[in-house]
Amino acid sequence: MSIVVASIPSGHVYVRHLSPSAGSGGDTVVRLPDPPSGASPDSPWWPPRMLTTDWIAEHAADFDLMHIHFGFDALSPDHLRDVAAALRRHAKPLVLTVHDLRNPHHDAAATHDSQLDVLMASADAIVTLTPGAASVIRTRWGRDAIVLPHPHVVPDEWLGRPRPERDGFVVGLHAKSLRANMDPLPLVDALTAALPDMPGARLRVDAHTDVMTAGFPRHDIEFADHLNDLANHHLIELRVHDFFSDDELWNYLHDLDVSVLPYQFGTHSGWLEACHDLGTWVAAPDCGFYAEQRPCLTYAATGPERASSLVEAVRTAHTRWLAGEVAPRADLADRHTERTSLARSHTELYAEVLERRLACTS
């Protein structure tokens, strides 16, 4: 018998890959499709309509439980309390996967903390990705979280694609749309100063059109002028573009030897997971639990050693590249086995919370 989950969201790659790979056997979990929000063509599930009391009341007969991953960034704690109360009224368990202990899009931690306070207290079960995150959850909220790894991100055809052969060593830093946890310019400057001492090394910096172009709401003139100046002096290879499609992103990461995550705070990373799928080194900050998630090189997220420690991490990757070493890379068969295990673990978890809820209401 199927378990029907109102998954928020359903279309995100992380959630899609909680189901078994095609041909791996049946899955008793059915995730409802995301109701289109109409607000964002780039992310049709956001803001999620499922996270409303009206949707829950209207569709209570259509699902067995709700599982929240992402999408509550803009919702007040009171709104989330109302959602949790609506689920209780209709005897629908709530499962929460904690991807972020600190929201990378929020300048301050207070809003996300207050949202997590509500969700942690309301959830019938909690999942997270690393033991370190589970330890924080236990300390801060007194809840035990089940630790389940992040599934693969890139599709099979990319997982098995050979690494490109080339003479150079490419360091990539993608500033995206300069979200709140990013401070890339000191890192860019440190790398431009250090890479000439690394034979064959070059720095590619990517940024989205919205921060590089005058007249766009997120335009940052200081950031744009600085990168353009470095590019004009041939110190960086600058690429300005809109959001990558999935295949464009996989191709970009596949062509890098090391990808720098220019974050000052954060918890886990799908970007790191994609690099592991593709065999690209990651230089990740020592905040959060990136190093527990997948093998990576680390540097100081904040403080006076931030830039110099990044240079040392990149230098380590370069030394290994000169020696012919390759970054740890996910194995296609292992990723399929992991995905089957994740599907089974989620099915068992859903069955358990439903059984507990039934016992409480009978």
Automatic annotation (TrEMBL):
Keyword presence, Transferase: yes
Source organism superkingdom: Bacteria
Chain residue ranges for the region called Disordered: 23-44
Keywords: Transferase
GO molecular function: transferase activity
Protein name, UniProt field: Glycosyltransferase family 1 protein
Naturally occurring in which organism (per UniProt): Pedococcus bigeumensis
